[in-house]
Amino acid sequence: MKKRCLMISGGRLSLPFARDFLKGRSYECVIAVDAGFGACLKLGLHPQLAVGDFDTFGRERILCYQEDSGLSLDIHEPVKDETDTELAFFRAQQLGAGAVDVLGATGGRLDHEISNIHLLLQAKKRGLSAALYDEQNKLYLLDAKEEPETEFTAGRVYGKYVSFLPLTETVRGITLTGFKYPLVEKDISILENPSLCVSNELAGERAVMRFREGILICVESAD
């Protein structure tokens, strides 16, 4: 059986939010990404693995924790082709994860945040169902080949708003039913109308999104 994994990234993370998020949730493995290890300690989490170059948390500090706790480390040089988060997704796959919830991957440096969104596609190709969470947003990808239809239910959506943005250049055949702003067989493109499906809402208890081709970024957002 595939494991459910929690990844604490090294970006900006609200600890009160993280504590509330973790209530009632359980994970088979926890991975800390560089400075995310410090957040894990404050949250009372015990990661099975810490990944990164540790230029933020400090290499000597992490080695001291390893001596005391037997923590598994995957240490890399700061000069490398991958970000720490990319390396962590690869290790999550190696550990047998099938789903990954990521905290701390948004709200900090914009270049890293955009990179983390793009890394969701790499994770998906590796068989990982991954989502980024923060106080206001849940962000994940939908691929028409794998998820041609997605249902959204009131009370289970992460926030009031649901947005669909094209990750591939063109996404074809979007049909939205049960939404405040419905669509029928509409194409959206990064080059022409990328914001057409931003800030929609459920009109009732249930809404369905269908599409035929492409990959969408889905963002469930609260005010």
Structure description:
This protein is α/β, with parallel strands linked by helices and 223 residues long. It has two domains: 133 residues, Thiamin pyrophosphokinase, catalytic domain (Rossmann fold, 3-Layer(aba) Sandwich), CATH 3.40.50.10240; 82 residues, Thiamin pyrophosphokinase, catalytic domain (Rossmann fold), CATH 3.40.50. Helices cover 24% and strands 35% of the residues. It has five helices and 14 strands. The strands form two sheets. Strands 4-3-2-1-5-6-7-14-9-12 form a ten-stranded mixed sheet, sandwiched between helices. The longest helix has 16 residues. The protein is elongated. The two termini are 37 Å apart. The relative contact order is 0.14.
Helices, strands, pairings?
Elements: E1 3-8, H1 15-22, E2 29-33, H2 36-43, E3 49-52, H3 59-69, E4 72-75, H4 84-94, E5 97-103, H5 110-125, E6 129-133, E7 137-143, E8 149-153, E9 161-166, E10 170-177, E11 183-189, E12 200-201, E13 206-210, E14 215-221
Parallel strand pairs: 1-2, 1-5, 2-3, 3-4, 5-6
Antiparallel strand pairs: 6-7, 7-14, 8-13, 9-12, 9-14, 10-11, 10-13
